[in-house]
Amino acid sequence: MKIICIGRNYTKHIEELENEKPTDPVVFMKPDTAILLKKQPFFIPDFSGDVHHEVEVLVKINKVGKYIDRKFAHKYYDQIGLGIDFTARDMQSKLKEKGLPWEKAKAFDGSAVVGKWLPKEKINDVNNIEFRLLKNDEIVQEGNTSHMLWKIDELIEYVSKYFTLKIGDIIFTGTPAGVGKVIANDRLKGFIDNEELFSITIK
Fold it and tell me: Pseudo-torsion of CA 125, 117, 32, 62, nearest 10°?
Protein backbone atom coordinates (compact mmCIF):
# COMPACT_ATOMS: atom_id res chain seq x y z
CA MET A 1 0.00 0.00 0.00
CA LYS A 2 1.02 3.60 -0.48
CA ILE A 3 0.16 6.87 1.21
CA ILE A 4 -0.65 9.72 -1.15
CA CYS A 5 -0.70 13.15 0.46
CA ILE A 6 -2.17 16.40 -0.80
CA GLY A 7 -0.59 19.70 0.17
CA ARG A 8 -2.03 23.22 0.05
CA ASN A 9 -5.69 22.18 -0.24
CA TYR A 10 -7.12 24.76 2.19
CA THR A 11 -6.73 28.47 1.45
CA LYS A 12 -6.21 29.60 5.06
CA HIS A 13 -3.45 27.04 5.57
CA ILE A 14 -1.74 28.25 2.39
CA GLU A 15 -1.91 31.77 3.78
CA GLU A 16 -0.57 30.86 7.24
CA LEU A 17 2.55 29.30 5.70
CA GLU A 18 2.83 32.11 3.12
CA ASN A 19 2.80 29.66 0.22
CA GLU A 20 1.56 30.30 -3.30
CA LYS A 21 -1.91 29.05 -4.16
CA PRO A 22 -1.35 26.11 -6.53
CA THR A 23 -3.04 25.70 -9.91
CA ASP A 24 -3.06 21.90 -9.50
CA PRO A 25 -3.08 19.70 -6.40
CA VAL A 26 0.30 19.39 -4.69
CA VAL A 27 1.05 15.67 -4.35
CA PHE A 28 3.70 13.90 -2.31
CA MET A 29 4.08 10.39 -0.92
CA LYS A 30 4.85 8.64 2.33
CA PRO A 31 6.06 5.02 2.54
CA ASP A 32 4.15 2.46 4.60
CA THR A 33 6.90 2.74 7.25
CA ALA A 34 5.59 6.24 7.98
CA ILE A 35 2.45 4.82 9.61
CA LEU A 36 2.54 5.21 13.38
CA LEU A 37 1.85 1.82 14.93
CA LYS A 38 -1.41 1.48 16.85
CA LYS A 39 -1.26 2.40 20.55
CA GLN A 40 2.27 3.75 20.13
CA PRO A 41 3.33 7.30 21.08
CA PHE A 42 4.82 9.63 18.51
CA PHE A 43 8.52 10.18 19.21
CA ILE A 44 9.87 13.54 18.07
CA PRO A 45 12.79 12.68 15.77
CA ASP A 46 16.23 13.84 16.83
CA PHE A 47 16.82 15.61 13.49
CA SER A 48 14.10 18.22 14.05
CA GLY A 49 13.38 20.84 16.66
CA ASP A 50 10.08 21.97 15.12
CA VAL A 51 7.66 19.14 14.33
CA HIS A 52 4.14 20.31 13.47
CA HIS A 53 0.79 18.53 13.59
CA GLU A 54 -1.39 18.65 10.47
CA VAL A 55 -4.79 16.97 10.91
CA GLU A 56 -6.38 15.60 7.73
CA VAL A 57 -9.40 13.68 6.49
CA LEU A 58 -8.33 10.33 5.04
CA VAL A 59 -9.78 8.13 2.31
CA LYS A 60 -9.04 4.41 1.94
CA ILE A 61 -9.15 3.04 -1.62
CA ASN A 62 -11.14 -0.19 -2.00
CA LYS A 63 -10.59 -1.14 -5.67
CA VAL A 64 -7.89 -0.85 -8.30
CA GLY A 65 -8.22 2.13 -10.60
CA LYS A 66 -6.35 4.18 -13.20
CA TYR A 67 -7.57 7.28 -15.06
CA ILE A 68 -10.68 7.36 -12.88
CA ASP A 69 -13.36 9.75 -14.07
CA ARG A 70 -14.60 12.10 -11.34
CA LYS A 71 -18.19 10.90 -11.73
CA PHE A 72 -17.08 7.35 -10.88
CA ALA A 73 -14.57 8.25 -8.15
CA HIS A 74 -17.09 7.67 -5.34
CA LYS A 75 -17.06 3.95 -6.20
CA TYR A 76 -13.37 3.65 -5.29
CA TYR A 77 -13.66 4.23 -1.54
CA ASP A 78 -16.06 3.22 1.20
CA GLN A 79 -14.19 4.32 4.32
CA ILE A 80 -13.38 7.77 5.69
CA GLY A 81 -10.86 8.41 8.43
CA LEU A 82 -8.82 11.05 10.18
CA GLY A 83 -5.09 11.27 10.69
CA ILE A 84 -2.05 13.47 11.19
CA ASP A 85 0.68 14.34 8.72
CA PHE A 86 3.55 15.15 11.08
CA THR A 87 5.97 17.56 9.45
CA ALA A 88 9.51 18.51 10.43
CA ARG A 89 8.91 22.16 9.57
CA ASP A 90 12.48 23.32 10.10
CA MET A 91 13.80 20.66 7.74
CA GLN A 92 11.02 21.28 5.22
CA SER A 93 11.87 24.97 5.10
CA LYS A 94 15.52 24.21 4.36
CA LEU A 95 14.60 21.73 1.64
CA LYS A 96 12.12 24.14 0.03
CA GLU A 97 14.75 26.90 -0.03
CA LYS A 98 17.00 24.62 -2.07
CA GLY A 99 14.19 23.35 -4.30
CA LEU A 100 14.65 19.82 -2.97
CA PRO A 101 12.00 17.13 -2.30
CA TRP A 102 10.20 17.12 1.06
CA GLU A 103 10.43 13.42 1.93
CA LYS A 104 12.90 13.76 4.81
CA ALA A 105 10.57 16.31 6.42
CA LYS A 106 7.30 14.54 5.63
CA ALA A 107 7.87 10.81 5.19
CA PHE A 108 10.02 9.78 8.14
CA ASP A 109 9.09 6.79 10.32
CA GLY A 110 5.94 7.40 12.38
CA SER A 111 5.01 10.60 10.54
CA ALA A 112 1.56 9.36 9.48
CA VAL A 113 -1.14 8.83 12.09
CA VAL A 114 -4.04 6.77 10.75
CA GLY A 115 -7.03 6.72 13.06
CA LYS A 116 -10.14 4.59 13.18
CA TRP A 117 -12.07 4.19 9.92
CA LEU A 118 -15.75 5.07 9.49
CA PRO A 119 -18.02 3.49 6.87
CA LYS A 120 -18.76 6.09 4.21
CA GLU A 121 -22.48 5.50 4.63
CA LYS A 122 -22.18 6.99 8.14
CA ILE A 123 -21.11 10.28 6.54
CA ASN A 124 -24.02 12.36 5.28
CA ASP A 125 -21.90 14.25 2.75
CA VAL A 126 -18.18 13.68 2.14
CA ASN A 127 -17.98 17.28 0.92
CA ASN A 128 -19.25 18.58 4.25
CA ILE A 129 -17.27 16.75 6.93
CA GLU A 130 -16.58 18.67 10.15
CA PHE A 131 -13.32 17.65 11.81
CA ARG A 132 -11.00 18.97 14.49
CA LEU A 133 -7.82 18.34 16.42
CA LEU A 134 -7.46 18.90 20.15
CA LYS A 135 -4.08 19.39 21.80
CA ASN A 136 -4.20 18.93 25.55
CA ASP A 137 -8.01 19.24 25.33
CA GLU A 138 -7.95 22.57 23.49
CA ILE A 139 -9.06 22.86 19.87
CA VAL A 140 -6.06 23.81 17.71
CA GLN A 141 -7.34 22.89 14.23
CA GLU A 142 -10.87 22.89 12.84
CA GLY A 143 -11.84 22.15 9.27
CA ASN A 144 -14.61 21.21 6.92
CA THR A 145 -14.11 19.38 3.64
CA SER A 146 -16.41 21.94 2.00
CA HIS A 147 -13.43 24.33 2.18
CA MET A 148 -11.12 22.09 0.14
CA LEU A 149 -9.80 23.59 -3.09
CA TRP A 150 -10.09 20.09 -4.59
CA LYS A 151 -12.76 17.78 -3.19
CA ILE A 152 -12.20 14.07 -2.55
CA ASP A 153 -13.56 12.83 -5.89
CA GLU A 154 -11.54 15.46 -7.77
CA LEU A 155 -8.40 14.31 -5.95
CA ILE A 156 -9.02 10.68 -6.89
CA GLU A 157 -9.47 11.68 -10.52
CA TYR A 158 -6.28 13.75 -10.49
CA VAL A 159 -4.05 11.34 -8.59
CA SER A 160 -5.13 8.34 -10.67
CA LYS A 161 -3.76 10.02 -13.81
CA TYR A 162 -0.27 9.53 -12.39
CA PHE A 163 -0.50 6.56 -10.02
CA THR A 164 -2.58 3.41 -10.24
CA LEU A 165 -4.68 3.33 -7.08
CA LYS A 166 -4.70 -0.04 -5.35
CA ILE A 167 -6.76 -1.62 -2.58
CA GLY A 168 -5.63 -0.29 0.80
CA ASP A 169 -3.99 2.88 -0.51
CA ILE A 170 -4.65 5.91 1.69
CA ILE A 171 -5.13 9.49 0.54
CA PHE A 172 -4.39 12.30 3.01
CA THR A 173 -6.57 15.11 1.65
CA GLY A 174 -4.84 18.19 3.10
CA THR A 175 -4.84 20.16 6.34
CA PRO A 176 -6.73 23.30 7.39
CA ALA A 177 -5.19 26.27 9.18
CA GLY A 178 -3.92 25.99 12.73
CA VAL A 179 -0.88 23.75 12.32
CA GLY A 180 1.56 24.04 15.17
CA LYS A 181 4.50 22.63 17.06
CA VAL A 182 4.24 19.56 19.27
CA ILE A 183 6.35 18.99 22.38
CA ALA A 184 6.88 16.06 24.72
CA ASN A 185 3.82 15.07 26.79
CA ASP A 186 1.32 16.75 24.45
CA ARG A 187 -1.85 14.72 23.94
CA LEU A 188 -3.52 14.91 20.53
CA LYS A 189 -7.08 13.79 19.84
CA GLY A 190 -8.85 13.85 16.48
CA PHE A 191 -12.59 14.00 15.89
CA ILE A 192 -15.01 13.80 12.98
CA ASP A 193 -18.17 15.43 14.32
CA ASN A 194 -18.29 14.11 17.90
CA GLU A 195 -16.58 10.79 17.26
CA GLU A 196 -13.00 10.40 18.46
CA LEU A 197 -10.92 8.65 15.80
CA PHE A 198 -7.47 8.80 17.37
CA SER A 199 -5.66 9.74 20.56
CA ILE A 200 -1.88 9.84 20.78
CA THR A 201 0.83 11.02 23.14
CA ILE A 202 3.97 12.89 22.10
CA LYS A 203 7.28 11.69 23.49
Answer: -60
Q: Is the Cβ–Cβ distance between 30 and 3 less than 8 Å? A: yes
Does the pTM exceed 0.70?
A: yes
Task: Determine the structural domain holding residue 182 and report its residue range.
Answer: 3-201
How far is the C-alpha of 52 from the C-alpha of 95, rounded, in Å?
16
CATH code, domain carrying 189: 3.90.850.10
Count the domains in the chain: 1
Three-class SS state of 57? strand
Query: Do 178 and 17 touch, CB atoms closer than 8 A?
Result: no
Please work out, in degrees rounded to the nearest 5, the angle formed at the alpha carbon of residue 153 by the alpha carbons of 53 and 158: 85
Task: Show Cβ contacts of residue 151 under 8 Å, excluding neighbours closer than 6 positions.
Answer: 126, 127, 145
User: Which letter, b or e, does each residue of 133-172 get, where b requires 16 or more Cβ atoms within 10 Å of its Cβ?
Assistant: bbbeeeebbebebebbbbbbbebbbbbbeeeebeeebbbb
One digit per residue, the tens of pLDDT, for the chain of length 203 reads 999 999 889 877 656 656 676 789 999 999 999 999 998 999 999 999 999 999 999 999 999 999 999 999 999 999 999 999 999 999 999 999 999 999 999 999 999 999 999 999 999 999 999 999 999 999 999 999 999 999 999 999 999 999 999 999 999 999 999 999 999 999 999 999 999 999 999 99
Contact 82, 115 (CB under 8 A): yes
